[in-house]
Amino acid sequence: MKYDVSSTKEGKTLLLVPSFSLSENVPPKNPAFFNPNAKWNRDISILAYKIQASSKNNRTFADSICGVGARGLRTAVEVPKIETIYLNDLNPIAIDLAKESAKLNQVQDKCNFDTNDVCKFLNFQERDFRKFDIVDLDPFGSPSPYVDCVLRSVSNRGLISITATDTAVLCGVYPNVCYRKYYGFPLRTEYSNEIGIRILVSFIALNASRFDLSIVPYFCHSNLHYLRVYLKVIFGNLLANSVSSKIGFLKHCQNCKHRKVEHLKEQNLVCEICGTKCNLAGPLWTDSLFDSEFVGAMLNELKNNGYYSSSPNDYNKLLKVVQTCDNELAYPSYFETDTIASMARKSSVSLERVVSTLSCNGFNVSKTIMNDKGFKTNASPKEIINLLYK
Ligand SMILES: [Zn+2]
Q1: What element of type H or E holds 122?
Q2: How many angstroms does the Cα of residue 340 sit away from the middle of ligand 1?
Q3: Starting at the edge strand that comes first in sequence, how are the strands of the sheet with 154-164 ordered?
Q4: Per-residue pLDDT for 266 more than 80?
Q5: What does the DSSP 8-state code read for residue 116?
Q6: What are the tens digits of pLDDT across the range 157-195?
Q7: For burial by CB atoms within 10 Å, which of 75, 93, 347, 388 has the most?
Q8: What's 132-161 look like in SS3?
Q9: For ion ligand 1, residues whose CB falls within 5 Å
């Protein structure tokens, strides 16, 4: 197949990509897939991998479905502490482009290329080592079929980063598909993306526990098109045994917006506030989604050495997200200014005012990286409305 190739710069890395992937709204899969809109998503990856590589001997990175190699090549160029990069994609045209880009950036000596099935690539027995230190999985659609292979392929205290692009499934449009793929029921509500992330993390944690592994979430984020999680994987059944204490259900009252974590043995579906029968989401991860040490290190790195982005706008957006995350409360759900306004039958109040009002009145309150209009607080919906609209 004949096609034009262009070079584009992302971070410090030059990438060779099919020309039309730079101009079309939805980048085509053929002859090779490259999504320029995922640049910011990859900026976060580079930042996270850099933190991981500085805290432990992390020598190997596997980009298991690499497309034209954007994430793997950027890691090779921009995270020098990682010594060897493995790039794999079933599409040989994509791998040919990745090889050429590696030469262009003079990182060909640390890059290895493969055109295998994801699971065969990750669990290839004849390599001189068995486990990668960092593994990325970014498939089209659901990562669910590959999660086992990723977990089998990562070293002790290694990092896995996983993207899910089936947001409609995880965020509540297709609850039966969500249960089938992730063993959890989603919920259509203003914080459905956070529930989606928590269902994904719970699914990975339960799969990990089958292999005597446990996971610790480092960082998670989402937008309309994807949910993405960064998790540490720890070997040993001692921690894995406690997985059940971190997984439960979230009860949500569609009437008064009250929500509460429920555990399997003590489920009570009646809303404590208004008596309405609630919806139940889960099983889902009820523990923290962020590791404060890891997020703090991300923030320091950004402030001290932050060039991750070739555009100042993207850098500022990244800084804002990591700052917000650094202060985010560990509550498992958030409120949205618009939902509160519509419950009060009033117009929306700015997020800044919501935060200052609740905080001045002695409540815990923070913004959330899950939603630009979202906030987390220990105030009840009624208390929020009374304070904002009294
Ligand atoms: Zn209620």
Answers
A1: helix 118-122
A2: 14
A3: 111-114, 84-88, 60-63, 132-137, 154-164, 227-235, 213-222
A4: no
A5: -
A6: 999 999 999 999 999 999 999 999 999 999 999 999 999
A7: 75
A8: EEEEEECCCCCCHHHHHHHHHCEEEEEEEE
A9: 253, 255-256, 258, 271, 273-274, 276
Measured distance CA(49)–CA(113) in Å, rounded: 20
Structure tokens at 317: 């957006």
Span from the CA of 336 to the centroid of ligand 1 (angstroms):
17
Band of residue 307 on the pLDDT scale cut at 50, 70, 90: low
pLDDT higher than 60, residue 1? no
**CA-CA-CA-CA torsion sign (350, 356, 360, 365):** positive
Domains and CATH numbers, the chain: 5-285 (3.40.50.150), 334-390 (3.30.56.70)
Of the pLDDT bands very low, low, confident and very high (cuts 50, 70, 90), residue 126 is low
Nearest-angstrom CA–CA distance, 241 and 205: 11
